[in-house]
Specification:
Layout lengths: L2 E5 L6 H10 L3 E4 H7 L6 H10 L12 H9 L2 H24 L6 E4 L14 E6 L2 H11 L4 H10 L3 H7 L2 E4 L4 H24 L1
């Protein structure tokens, strides 16, 4: 199995890039989606979160109130650490399970915390979507209902731009048009198919 890890800071365009890979027939395993699956109603992790933070962390249907949880952990490093210790191993299990079910020539693992969580250790190649921090902030303010303070807090919790670029095998500079982005992704898709073929033969 040849795994390409895809990461980038908030607002860098990871989803736009992974959508193009998906259109090429590549299985996309999304860590954000996996992080939602492991805290679904009826899962043991949700019960532990409710016991730890209190029942008020659940909405009126018994689902996790993600916005409230985010507020609680971003202002409290110890609570954030507790939550990560609970969820990271479960998310990792879910990722591996989905990767193992993939039948495409290679698999794309998309994660905003690919490097920070150690998920990059299972990847054969690391693709970083890069934009200047000012662009990250501008795009996120436009897209999400977040305050500037919350965005700064999210950016501080992620690897720095420099740390990501140092780890990258491939970089897409995502400040141009959608057409430019698409041609960059298609070129990498061809490259990854070749690398995956070589990997199988080794």
């Amino acid at each position: 199995m040849f795994i390409v890890g895809l990461t980038g800071g908030i607002g860098s365009g990871k989803t736009a890039v992974s959508d193009i890979f998906e259109q090429c027939g590549i299985t996309v395993v999304d860590a954000d989606l996996c992080s939602r699956i492991v805290v679904e109603k009826g899962r043991p992790a949700l019960q532990k979160i409710a016991e730890h933070f209190g029942e008020s962390i659940l909405d009126d249907k018994g689902n996790l109130d993600r916005a409230l949880l985010r507020k609680k952990i971003f202002s409290n490093p110890e609570e954030k650490k507790w939550l990560e210790n609970l969820l990271h191993p479960l998310i990792f299990e879910e990722l591996v399970s989905q990767i193992n079910a993939s039948t495409s020539p290679y698999t794309l693992l998309v994660s905003p915390l690919l490097i920070e969580s150690g998920q990059n250790t299972i990847c054969n190649r690391l693709l970083v979507i890069d934009v200047p921090e000012s662009v990250q902030i501008e795009r996120t303010l436009r897209r999400d209902n977040e305050t500037r303070e919350q965005i700064d807090s999210i950016m501080r919790s992620q690897a720095s731009r420099q740390q990501r670029l140092e780890k990258a095998d491939d970089i897409i500079e995502n400040t141009g048009s959608l057409d430019m982005l698409k041609s960059a992704v298609l070129a990498l898709h061809e490259k990854y198919k070749q690398l995956a073929n070589t990997h199988k033969l080794e």
